[in-house]
Amino acid sequence: MFSLVERGRLASRVAVMAARALWAYKLRSCFVIAAVALGIASLTVIVASIDGAERKANEIVDSFGPDAVFILGGDIRSRAVGQRTLTLSYADAERLRQSLPGAYLVVPMRARQNVSARFEGANTQLPLVIGATAGYAEVWNWPLIEGRDLTEADVARGAKVGLIGDLPAKALFGEASPVGRTVFIDNLPVQIVGRLAYRGFSAGGGGAVDDRLIIPISTLTQRFNLDRKYFRALRVKFVDPENMAFHVENLRSLLRDQHRLAEGAPDDFTILTADEILKFLSMFKGGLVLFLGITAVVAMVVGGFVLANLFYLSISERRTEIGLKKALGAPSGAILLQILLEAVWLTLIGALCGMGLGMALGQLLERLGLLELLLSWKIFGLSTLAAVVIGLLFGLKPARQAAAMAPMDVLKGEL
Amino acid sequence: MSEAPLIRLEALVKSFQQGDLEIPVLKGLDLEIVAGEFIALQGSSGSGKSTLLHILGLLDRPSGGRYWLQGEDVAALPDEQLSRLRNGVMGFLFQSFYLVPYISALENVILPGLYSATPGRSLRQRGQELLAEVGLADRMSFRPGQLSGGQQQRVALARALVNDPQLLLADEPTGQLDTATSVEIMQLLSRVHSSGRTVIVVTHEAATAAYAKRTIFLQDGHVLPG
User: Fold this and answer.
1) Given CB atoms, is B171 within the 8 Å cutoff of chain A?
2) What is the residue-wise DSSP string for B211-225?
């Protein structure tokens, strides 16, 4: 019987033979590599985009904060036609401030859309100007890179001061500091007192979250002549995030009482928590994973079939070579190993090409802003593993067929 | 006989299945070959001479009867051991050479050695010596397609000898060669024989058979009494 050392030597010799054979049949090898590469490329993009989506989701949830809720007027889940969305009043906010246990910051918000902003020669269009009360940056866990947050005094005076988001700050001031400068928003002069850090994800339907300017809500309602009783949304922060379920229930009954809703009547407001956002995002991610996963599997299986087909062809083409090797004393195991190694060599090269292609494609998609990708060693491992599995799985049948060939099958032709 | 025979066949039978029909090719063959013989196997087309050579070379199994090689009953050995015997004890020459087209002459020569336990370095050295012996020292890195028929058969002969086999089996080795080249190949085979190896050549050419020391005639699956 073969000793371990002999087996090792035989295996390494067979590995070299496999590489030689692949080199000899370059065109066929290229086809297999291309087929596998396409499958692996799609796998790479898919895994990267799923990871990217997850990272984004975590960022969103992190910035939302586990200790906060966001309340919107109207029931966004029922989406009834003609439903009132201006249901939250200053009286509500006041009641929450005074009687909601555990809440330490309550910030009502209103927004004005599509307002132009101007500083000296520079102009920009703001998708959102938000009116808020003291502690806007704090209540959104949004760091200020310079300046200060809005204060009680700002709101009480209806001061013409504001916080500027990253995008308009760059558009109007470039690299210079905006703090202390005066920006005109629809001819209202606003002195910038703070600059918000870059957050980098899109707000729900309202464009980039960084593309905004925040002024005291009193200033906004006066200057833009908005309803003085109601606002659109409310942000509440609590001291202890462990008891969020309890806080949310308190908040809900308080608001229902405040709005005099009868028993059984639906809420006329919506309370969002980090948990709910996470639920929504993972639902969205689940769909993405399923859809892209099926795509990846199909692409890989196609690659596998191309491999199997070309290997069957290759084996009938190389009958003589295989029969000869058996006649010269190659054990069946060596033939099996050679064909399998040929398959695995090709799929590994295909995997490398595919990863390169996938990363290039991913960069392109990211640059076009279509996808958020996260490339990692996990992808490298997963692609390599997938390639080896495909090589072994689809190479096994042709390899066994080759190994089972009798030397006679090839040599009998001669008489 | 003082010497145990290298090969002993007893009532050897071989038949091929063709649909429902069983076609007998070898019909109870008895034969003894001692080490060091140079034998020509002759017979008309369909007499079973190639079939006999394939069975002797362990490329095919008999349907019945016994086959002792070096005193060992090999008819029932598992495939793995037959591979080892083919690799270590036998060398083969075929009518159409059967060289692997995409590797060099030298790589073709050492191919059987790759399946043996011989270390790579001594294998290459032996391959080079053998190619030099058959007169192809300057063609080692040539591909088979760049060599003439006679040169290819000489590469095949070097390959047959690389594992230093006791038995050389040649199936119509001159069948695709012209007369002059045939003479060269048969002279090389004679040298192989005089170095102490047993050589068995299947041929239908009298000129080729003339190099052998004993001729065995096959007719209808039987050995003709000589």
Assistant:
1) yes
2) TSSEEEEEETTEEPP
User: Whose CA is closest to A210, among A110, A123, A119, A126?
Assistant: A126
Sort A175 into a burial class: Cβ within 10 Å, 0-12 / 13-18 / 19+: exposed
Residue A62 parent element (H or E): helix A26-64
Dist. CA B165–CA A61, nearest whole Å: 76
pLDDT in tens, B112-154: 999 999 999 999 999 999 999 999 999 999 999 999 999 999 9
User: Regarding beta strands A188-196 and A144-147, do their DSSP bridges make them parallel or antiparallel, or are they unpaired?
Assistant: antiparallel
pTM attached to this predicted model? 0.74
Residue (of A362, A328, A278, A206) closest to A57 by Cα position:
A278
Phi and psi at A298, nearest 5°, equal -60, -45
Q: Which run of H or of E encompasses A238?
A: strand A233-238
Q: What is the ipTM of this complex?
A: 0.93
Contact of A128 with A113, CB cutoff 8 Å: yes
A190 to each of A112, A215, A364, how far by Cα in Å? 15, 8, 40
The rounded mean pLDDT for chain A is 85
Please name each of the domains of chain B with its CATH number: 7-223 (3.40.50.300)
Q: Which of residues 23-62 of A touch B (CB under 8 A)?
A: 23-24
Other beta carbons less than 10 A from residue A3's beta carbon:
9
Cβ-based contacts of A329 with chain B (< 8 Å): 83-88, 112, 115-116, 163
Taking CA atoms, B3 is separated from B6, B11, B32, B33, in Å, by 9, 21, 11, 11
pLDDT band for position B70 (cuts 50, 70, 90): very high
* Contact yes or no for B48/B9 (Cβ under 8 A): no
